[in-house]
Amino acid sequence: MSGKALEDYPGLVELRRHTAPSALYDAVSWVPRPNFHHSAVSQRILADLEVWTKSAFESDDFTMRWLHGTEESGKSVLAQELAKACAKADSLAGTFFFSNFDAKRNTCQCICATIALQMVSFIPGLCPIVDGVVSKNPSVLATSLECQFEELVTKPWLQALEASNSDAAFEDVYNPSKRLKTSETGYVTGASPSINTRTLILDGLDECASTDELGPLLSVLSETIQKRVLPLRILVTSRQEPYIISMLRKPCTRNVCRWIPLDDTYQASCEVRALVQAHLGRIVQQHSRSVPNIPRLWPSPEQIEILVQKASGNFSYLAMVVKYVGEDGAAPADRLDLVLEANPDVEEVSPSTMLDALYRHILLSQKNLPLLLQILGALITQDILDENFQDRWKLSRLSFITDFLQIPFETLAEVLSGIHCFFRDSSPFESDLHFGNESIPDFLRSQKRSRNGFVEVEVHHDSLAQLCLEILTAKPPSQPQLSLCTRYEYAYHHWVYHSMYAKGTPQLLMSLEAFDVYAMATRRVWGVNWWGCELQTLAEFLSNIYQVWLRFLSISPKGQRLLQHFYAFCAFGFLLTVRCKDGQAEEVPVSLTSKFYEDHMPKFYLECHLLSELALSTIRSVPPHSIEAGISPLKPKQHSGIVKMKWLR
């Protein structure tokens, strides 16, 4: 103040009356949290921020930083440490530490006056200018925040700079449009070294009592930063509140503000930033000839920063973005724009919800969504079977879709063309339609997360069970193709699996009612010869039938009524009619008991029972290769004459 006391400036005396002295970083009332520890993360962040405050202003694309963290994570202490470093380096513009417990610090009403009074002591030549502004128009202290910032901060600072520096230096720093461009973001600068870049620190935005006051404040700050009218950097800190995130996501702010998490994801975010630049740069090289419309400086620093914010250290998110943007035949710039548009609801922002928002945006942008969801649902039902059925029946996941569901390969390729990133390799067909990671089917199975892209797996099991029953009850062709044989084998071995996980719609219950278990047993178990694996196959068939009966027994009375023939087959038994090639025939009633199923006895005992009953018949003397058999329902009068199953121990 050129040796004069504050009292010599009546305008500054009036200004001081409207300030919050306790909001300064070195105020006596400012007490750091005793439980704060200088962790490696906080030390790394502080070091990076100090480097940022000293870096070349004209090459800084993000002159605003948002440090966010949980309560008691050390944001305020870190902000105070940075303020001390800036004050020592004569690069501090001012500080304002919000507080819930101070009537002057839980509002933005005093913030412009507090900043202006600090700047008076930091910036040469500013004292008489600000004094004159307030002396001539004391009512400026009662105007809007935007007006106060313009009259007390922006204009006086520019006037002081203009008076203390050459015209060339002034034009170079404060009128960037007149600089000599060397690139889209770089300039040849001849600014005077005396023009000192300063840092403004605002701590604890979430402690401002009125959220309505923060919007104008952040708008003024971001506008000042964006226009580069002042050599100013700004650090703001707060908890990660939804309303603050919403404000910082606005285009005017997000293009100049870098987000800094005060947690263990900070290092990951730094690595994500480097990986984004490397991977997207590689995509540019790969697509430079095939897609000529990629901007020369792509992706822009703003786009990279938004991706880092969205990732929040989540490398799965980054991997999905890179895979989606770089797909063959895609326009990378357009794909990246779609990624940047994908945002979750503000109230549920987290790394996982960002990934969900990306999945949802990709999924819902597909043209034939119903068919796509049918395919994805069918694939999810196969995840449990992958370990066993593929080796047994040589039915790959791709064949399951094209042969069993009979979706032409060309149609499949077209439907999946926009979601290659959902699968393991660069092409879904290279990975045999295996998902890239578990988060994708988990996302699809959750209605809350996927919304209109929800895959209700029970419904898909339902439709697949119906298809299996349809295949099993159809008349087999005289000369079936290999694909038809595979289709039949899959249907036989997995109709129970799909039925057990099905929702149990009326359509499925009707299909089960029409399913002739006796004909199926005859066709499957004794279709050709006997005394091979027939008993084991029959035991498995009976057990499966009973599982389906119990599964739908509790759904509704209708389910019990429709599936009575399942219960009769398992609980009472069946009639085995044996025919020899010489014309001899014999009917063998085979009785069963529900105790086998109620006690969950091994199938071995059922096989032993079948063997014992058949051994008592005249069939025992007939050569195995000369026998054919059929299974039919027991006649009512036969129920009382048969011997119930005996356990063989």
Description:
The protein has 649 residues and is α/β, with parallel strands linked by helices. The chain folds into 4 domains: 6-261, 3-Layer(aba) Sandwich (Rossmann fold); 287-363, no CATH class; 368-515, no CATH class; 555-649, no CATH class. Helices cover 51% and strands 8% of the residues. The chain has helices at 10-16, 40-54, 75-88, 111-122, 126-136, 145-164, 167-174, 211-227, 242-248, 251-254, 265-287, 301-311, 315-325, 332-341, 351-364, 369-382, 389-393, 397-404, 409-415, 439-445, 447-450, 457-473, 482-500, 506-514, 517-525, 534-553, 557-562, 564-571, 595-598, 603-615, and strands at 64-68, 92-97, 180-181, 187-188, 198-203, 232-238, 257-261, 573-580, 585-591, 627-632. α1 crosses α5 (126-136) and α11 (265-287) packs parallel to α13. It starts with 9 loop residues before the first helix and ends in a 17-residue tail after the last strand. Keywords: Repeat. This is Nephrocystin 3-like N-terminal domain-containing protein. It comes from Collybiopsis confluens.
